[in-house]
Design a protein that fits this description.
Blueprint (H helix, E strand, L loop, with lengths): L29 H14 L7
C-alpha cells in the first residue's frame, strides 16, 4: 500500500480515485451505490457523505 503524505488542515478533505477489480462496473448499480453510501455514513465521524 502506498504511503501518502497529507497536510493536517482542520476541515480539509481528500479526493481518492478508486478502481475496482478488473474495472468492474459495480458502482453503476443503484443498489450497490446505496449500500456503499450507507456503509460510509456508518463509519464516518460526522455521519455524512459529500
Amino acid at each position: 500500500m502506498s504511503r501518502y503524505r497529507r497536510a493536517a488542515v482542520p476541515g480539509g478533505s481528500y479526493f481518492f480515485t478508486v478502481v475496482t477489480e478488473r474495472r468492474q462496473r459495480i458502482l453503476t448499480d443503484p443498489a450497490l451505490r446505496l449500500a456503499l453510501r450507507e456503509a460510509i455514513e456508518r463509519v464516518s465521524p460526522v455521519g455524512r457523505v459529500i
